[in-house]
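Q: Got one fold?
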Amino acid sequence: MFLFPNYMSANVFKQEKDALCFQGLMARLYKLFAVQIADPRSEPTHTNGLNIHALIVDNATGQVLGMQQNSIHAFKHPIRHAERLRSSNHLHFIFVVFGLLFNPQCKAQQLPPSYQKLTSVWTITLAEYKDRLAQTNPTITGGCVTLTTATLATDLLVMVLKVSTVHSKGAMKNFIDSLTEQVVSMRDTLAMLADTDNYIFQDFIAAYHLPHETTQETTQRTTVIHNLLIRATNSPIDAADRLCQLFYLIQAARRIVSENVKSDVASCLLLLDASFKALTTLAKDNISQMPEAQRPSYEKRLQDLISKEQIVIKSTTN
């Protein structure tokens, strides 16, 4: 475990704030802890087992600017660690804390040799994507398909903005460029979440192959599967939340894009609306598999998102 404290903090308030941030980060790491997976054909990788989480806080206001998990495998990029969070609105007084936890007592979960492990959907061809999906034992999840669609729909919006900036000047060009940057950032996040959904599914496959002959093994296996169900439930809910944020960017885009590409904005909105509904359907199914005592908080969060999306979509299409 590592903590990078703010050595500039001289008052008790900031010291207590730093301590609370660290405790919150460790609680999140505990909740989302990924047990190491060992592929029979290769050495274990950072995808699971090396749990790196980052928290960035504005030291002036105490506002949490971002919290994220390691994403180097999602983008096949060695420096896309969780601590590289971006904030366009707060460029100073930022302190970073990250946690690293590896539990050597947890047995490595073994994927069956017949399972075709997939590191990222963004490194395969469309033909391979289709073949991997249309199988009795698919390696691509419904959540990943939904988020792949959402990612490509967001790229359609990027195209619209770039076309519109060709004939724009001055303040309008700066506004479109800024909006484009935000949409690109959201697209990259959705792409990462598509792979994340697959990672969780791979963890499920490995978890179901854990030994469960003794009481201790059965208890550990049940705990791992339950924790994965929580991650599998949070995955589509978190993604749906991102789409709600993206709808606000579409609202801004509709007012300033060129006339000849406004139909593309409408297509983008329809695709993302369908993706949102698909994600909430997946989340509802996962919630129904939880113990009854755990369901209410997830059901409330999901219903709040659905209500929010309905309002945003209505205002966007008017």
About this structure: Residues 1-110 form one domain. The first helix runs from residue 12 to 31. The beta strands are 37-38, 51-58, 64-69, 94-101, 109-110.
